[in-house]
Amino acid sequence: MADKEDEAILPEIRGFIGTHDKDWEDERQWSHPDLEITVVLEGSGRFVHEQEERRVEAGHVALIPSLAAHSFHAMTPIRFGVVLVDGLPTHVRELFERLVVLGKPRIIALSHLDQDHYERLFREWLRSRSSTLKEPVRNDLAWIEILLLFLNEHSHPDQQSFTVSHTGDYIRRHLQEPIVIGSLAEMAGLSEEGFRKRFFKAYGMTPKQYQQMCRLEEAKWLLSSTDKDMQAIAEQIGFAQLHSFSLWFKKTEGCPPSEWRTRQRRDHH
Questions:
Q1: What is the residue range of 202's domain?
Q2: CA pair distance 86, 83, nearest whole angstrom
Q3: Last residue of a domain, one of 95, 122, 154
Q4: Any idea what DSSP says for residue 30?
Q5: CATH code at 194?
Q6: Judgement on whether residues 34 and 105 belong to the same structural domain of the protein
Q7: Alpha carbon 125 to its chain's center
């Protein structure tokens, strides 16, 4: 019954990009009935909720529940991507509620790479809203759900995990390179042991396991979406020898990469 009632309520959804100079600030703490998702796209500033203050910068996302008093204050020229929603269906609202704690505003962090991905999704949603849609409300809800799912999957709750996430970005961008724990730890400003613990806390796996996961994702993407030959794909993800790539892929997926590509094309055409 609750789901049917949710469907009967048309949500109000707004989205925009706000750009301000370094002297801009809210006149006071505001509250409104909307759920708010604000990502800092460029620059830095301060976020204030009641008596609590937090510095925010590019990659930080402020999640603000309904009626929570808050204000933003620029410290440099700053650019925000803002989503305001009133009347979300229960299953989508639950995604937002997972990200906040005890109904209070919360700041989470995205790595540089994930911030870029989020901004692309956000801009694509704004672009879709500017076109003529047959079902604009359903389209908006689908996009909001995607954005919230993305934040649930890729956000980091503390600054140390945020710092470690930069090494995750590095691994994803340099799949051809071997994992050197000392170099990654130095990049994160941690001891090797501290880095290993922090990385596992952030990703639930070791750096080597994370690299292997990223290599597999990239290999599958290249196999399914390009016509690159096997040797080129192997080299792109860090295997100098095609034989080694084929053995590794078969061990992981249960079949050679050429067979996996054939199955994908057969099953999706």
A1: 161-268
A2: 10
A3: 154
A4: B
A5: 1.10.10.60
A6: yes
A7: 15
* Among 154, 188, 206, residue at a domain's last position: 154
> Is residue 213 a contact partner of residue 253, using CB atoms and an 8 Å limit?
no
Report the predicted TM-score, pTM, of the whole model to 2 decimal places: 0.70
Q: Which ranges constitute the DSSP H helices of 58-180?
A: 90-99, 112-129, 136-154, 159-173
In a domain, 235, yes or no: yes
Residue 151 to residue 107: CA distance in whole angstroms: 12
CATH code for the domain in which residue 88 is found: 2.60.120.810
CA distances from 224 to 69, 174, 196, 235, 252 (A): 48, 21, 33, 17, 17
Edge-first strand order for the sheet with 44-49 is: 52-57, 44-49, 71-74
What is the Cα–Cα distance from 19 to 241, expressed in whole angstroms? 49
Check: CB of residue 40 under 8 Å from CB of residue 109: no
| CA-wise closest residue to 148 among 79, 91, 210, 214 | 91
Q: For residue 24, how far is the Cα from the chain centroid?
A: 27
How confident is the prediction along the chain (269 residues), in pLDDT tens digits per residue? 445 545 556 789 999 999 999 999 999 999 999 999 999 999 999 999 988 999 999 989 999 999 999 999 999 999 999 999 999 999 999 999 999 988 899 998 888 888 999 999 999 999 999 889 999 999 999 999 999 999 998 876 655 566 788 888 889 989 999 999 999 998 888 899 999 998 998 888 999 999 999 999 999 999 999 999 999 999 999 999 999 999 999 999 999 999 999 988 877 65
Q: Which residue from 123, 124, 105, 18 is spatially nearest to 64, judged by alpha carbons?
A: 105
